[in-house]
Amino acid sequence: MATTRMLLEIDGTEADRDTLDALIEVRAEEATDEADAALVTMRVDPDASGGWPSLLDPLVTPRTPLAVRLERDGRSYRFDGYSARAVWDLDAEGRSTLTVLAIDRSLDLDREEKAVAWPGQRDSAMAETIFTEHKLRAEVASTPAGFDPDVHTVMQRGTDWSFVRELAVKWGYVAYLEADDGGQVTGHFHPPAPLAEPQGELALGFGGDAHRAQIRVDLLAGRRVIARRTPPLAAAAVTADAAGDDEAMAEVSLSARATELLAPQDVAGEVDVRQAATGRARHSAYGVTLTAAVDTDRTGLLLRARRTVLVRGLGPVLSGGYLVDRVRHVVTLEAHRQEVTLRRNALGATGFGPGGPG
Question: Does residue 196 fall inside a structural domain?
């Protein structure tokens, strides 16, 4: 079975195998609703002058580039970001370490508070403009047309990143940055895809990939969202009713377990009140959360967040398709473990071939 290959690049220079002898651990994490992050820990030993030199010393300068690339069996993940915090743990009689935390390129979008008017633009156009202004490739799903600028102008008050995230929440979209193998970063602004083709299978429980998994189910998750508002200069109100069960990942949907009545100001600025209600209803239905730690040598699978995975071995209620909400890769020179958080919006095993859920 293939093993995980890791590249560590500090301020544009790749670390070779000899310099990585002092490496203790690398943690690289991607998640749906948070910036990607990397945590690198290395052993440090005192020199003759009383200093504690380390391969990570360049990263002690704020916002120094750090890249971590993991590759296994044709699949890869690349973290591309900047150093944000350094912690020395010094012990003159034992093992001393330097740990550096890095955050992805969203730091570039989160540096400056702004007050910007966006007259007559779609929310998706605003997100795309912000991505391109920061020299990012943009993968953006369209939202309905914006207001007539003579009637209403959207105002941004905050950083570019906080503004894009707010726009995404409004439509039930996800917003994140993702680096490809060559270091090109893409800004994403679009709905999640819970019914997409799975990136692979995890055999949990008695399946062997992880003997222990914790699954929490909110049996009252899911909102039937009723929204009502009167557009500017319109003679009548527009009403939308969304159950959020149109993208159920199994036969027993967790949608519409409660009702949420939105006030007119809750959807202010929206042109398509139905799309806003639908996004909010869909987002509320993800009531199943599964956490597990998997041995990558056993699974042979390099999982990626924001994609789907098929889970076997948990029986007909809990097996089936899941969205990968978070992946934390814990890599040493000897092993690679993945700590995963999976979510879904329904109960029941579906998406299996003739062999059943297994």
Answer: no
Q: What is the pLDDT of residues 57-69, one digit of tens each?
A: 999 999 999 999 9
Report the C-alpha gap between 35 and 138 in whole angstroms: 17
Domain hosting 144: range is 109-190
Query: Could you tell me how far CA 27 lies from the centroid of its own chain?
Result: 15
The reply to whether 267 falls in a domain is: yes
Does residue 356 have a pLDDT over 50? no
- Let me know: does 54 contact 45? Beta carbons within 8 Å: no
Residue whose tokens read 């959360």: 289
Which pTM value belongs to this model?
Answer: 0.89
Q: Distance (Å, rounded) from C-alpha 274 to C-alpha 238?
A: 9
What is the pLDDT at residue 20? 87
**DSSP code at position 354:** T
CB distance 204 to 313 below 8 Å: yes
Q: Is residue 69 part of a domain?
A: yes
Query: Strands 346-347 and 238-242, how do they pair?
Result: unpaired
On whether both 209 and 342 belong to a single domain, the answer is yes
E strand or H helix that includes residue 163: helix 160-171
Q: Give 47's pLDDT tier (boundaries 50, 70, 90).
A: confident
Phi, psi angle pair for 177, to nearest 5°: -110, 145
Rg (the chain; Cα; Å): 23
Q: Are 146 and 120 within 8 A, CB to CB?
A: yes
Query: Helix H segments across the chain?
Result: 106-109, 123-133, 160-171, 273-284, 296-299, 315-318
Looking at the structure, tell me whether residues 149 and 255 fall in a common domain: no
16, exposed or middle or buried, with CB in 10 Å at 0-12, 13-18, 19+? Answer: exposed
Please identify, among 257, 284, 311, the residue that sits at the C-terminal boundary of a domain. 284
Is residue 266's pLDDT more than 70?
Answer: no
CA angle 114, 158, 85 (to 5 degrees): 105
Q: What is the pLDDT of residues 119-153, one digit of tens each?
A: 988 999 999 999 999 999 999 999 887 666 666 78
Provide the number of structural domains found in the chain: 4
At residue 208, φ and ψ (nearest 5 deg) are: 105, -20
Q: State the Cα angle at 2 between 194 and 35, rounded to 5°.
A: 40
Query: What is the residue type of 214?
Result: Q
Question: Is the torsion defined by CA of 103, 104, 108, 109 positive or negative?
Answer: negative
